[in-house]
Amino acid sequence: MKNGMVKGFTAVCLAGAFLFGSPLVVGAQIPACISLTEIHPGMQGKAVTVVDSSGRKRELKVNVMDVGWGERNDIYVEFSGQAADVDRGSVHGFSGSPVYIDGKLAGALAWHRKETYNRYMKVTPIADMLAIFDQPSSCDGSSVKMDGTAVAANIAKVGFGAGSPVGVAYMIGDISAASSGTVTLVDGSRMLAFGHSDSSMKQGNVNAFMTTATVIGSLYGPVDGNRFVNFGPVIGRISQNTEKGIAGVIGEYPHYVPIRLTVKDKDTGKEVTYQSKIAYNEEMIGKLAGQMVSAGIRKEVLSEAGTAAQVHFTIKAAGVPNGSYSYEDVCYRQAGVNSIAGNRLAQALGIILSDAEKDPDVTDIDVKVVVSRERNTASIVKVVPDRSTVRPGETVNLRVQLRPFRKPIETVMIPYTVPQGQPAGVMKLHLQGGIAVGAAAGKDSKVNAAAPQDTTPAAVQSTTKRLKELNEKLRGNEIAVTSHSAKKTRCSTNYAIDNTLDTEIYIQ
Staple 96 to which of 15, 135, 194, 298, CB 3.0 to 4.6 Å? Predict the structure, then answer.
């Protein structure tokens, strides 16, 4: 069974600051365990988990159906008695619930097939899960020891231990992203959970916030169900993610990147700032930061249809020139800008964090977004060169007429210099608007086929070069003038330009 994952974002206030001080002392130890060779069909046992808001750990009866089942060599069990007839078996979120047979720990609930109506579960053997502790542990960046007294108090408050819900948070704060499952065992400051991997993260060494969680309730459907939780304070760090389960260290605070998002509604004057922490995983920071921008806009702008946004962000990182990279763009989309406003941020972070030469060491992300419901777009309706015949090296002024949405026509002048060596004859010029054909989402609508293309793999190119190429992408409020054989000329406007148009001049 996949862990009961809270996909996307949930606004969560995670209490509890971390301090330096008393060491953490956790008394739980690995209980007596039973091996696969001692388990056979027909044996009975119990799974321990929290089902509802009472917080009480329930014992759900199970019968062993098969041993060494499938490629994972799992134990196959069926819920019986009240567990099947009243509780209707397992739901997403029970993953990791410890299973005891003959009073000994056999493993953790892990998987079920939808057609089995929650009654039949595969159990990951405990020996496979304990092997996770033997994996070398490292993380992106450095972790910090937490105040043991504060952590112990948070653990005691919810009775955290085998059978308790546990949160795995990739981002915490005003906007959060997390999944939840169940603790299999606690051994000193070490913890095992889930009985399978967390599909939101890569497998292997990882870095995420370990939090307590309290159950709101469990909802059963005809063939599936979910357990819903509130996430509590951070009590440690998730350090391993494997197909047999996840492992973490209680009392260790993950390395993270602070991110601030300020969303200003131009129409109402309202301005809100969100602050969160993203666990330092190079594969996830860009995606989470981009989604945080999307979530922040969606939260503040109740109706996203026809919204425009000005996006500005600054990334501080040791791996970029001068230790800082800034970018701004204009976005507009009839269906709403929330999904594209964070695109450039995610793209820039992806470039920085994939540096093949040095540690990027991202230390801060600051994003400012101004949204408006005004359709601030314009279309190019006419282009008139100030002269029809031009020599190579000379400049021709293009008189470009723009029709803003439901406003009078306006004119902008774009100077264009004909390249030296341009052959005599007709020269076609292509004018492209910044949001035409998806340009504002990071895709230029045309590629200069005659210009030399760098075929070096992205991972080998320098971060500086790739960021420079990102800067050269057309902004939403720009018009680019290109020809078959020349570099583009760009001009900024007061509108998001939504179309393309061609014109031509004659070269003597």
Answer: 194
How confident is the model over 226-267, as pLDDT tens digits? 889 999 999 999 999 999 999 999 999 999 999 999 999 988
190 and 212 fall within a common domain: yes
Q: Which strands sit side by side in the sheet containing 496-497, from one edge to the other?
A: 410-417, 395-404, 377-385, 496-497
Query: Which of 221, 253, 285 delimits the end of a domain?
Result: 253
Q: What is the pLDDT of residues 306-336, one digit of tens each?
A: 678 889 999 999 989 999 999 998 888 765 5
Cα–Cα distance measured from residue 126 to residue 34, given in angstroms and rounded to the nearest whole number: 8
| Spatial separation of the C-alpha atoms in residues 180 and 225, rounded to whole Å | 14
The dihedral sign for the CA sequence 201, 202, 208, 213: positive
Closest C-alpha to 422, from 386, 395, 461, 387: 395
Q: How many domains does the chain have?
A: 4
DSSP labels, 241-272: EETTEEEEEETEEPPEEEEEEEEEETTT--EE
Range of the domain at 81: 36-126
Domain stop point among 196, 218, 253: 253
Alpha helices in 373-462 (DSSP H): none
As a whole number of angstroms, the distance between CA 233 and CA 150 comes to: 10
* Residues contacting residue 344 through CB under 8 Å, at least 6 positions apart: 311, 313, 327, 329, 442, 470, 473
- Kindly report the CATH number assigned to the domain that includes residue 368: 3.10.20
| Closest by CA position to 77, among listed 37, 117, 119 | 119
Whole-angstrom Cα distance, residue 310 to residue 427?
Answer: 35
181 and 322 both lie in a single domain: no
- Tally the C-alpha atoms within 13 A of residue 64's C-alpha that lie toward its C-beta: 23
Co-location of 122 and 135 in the same domain? no
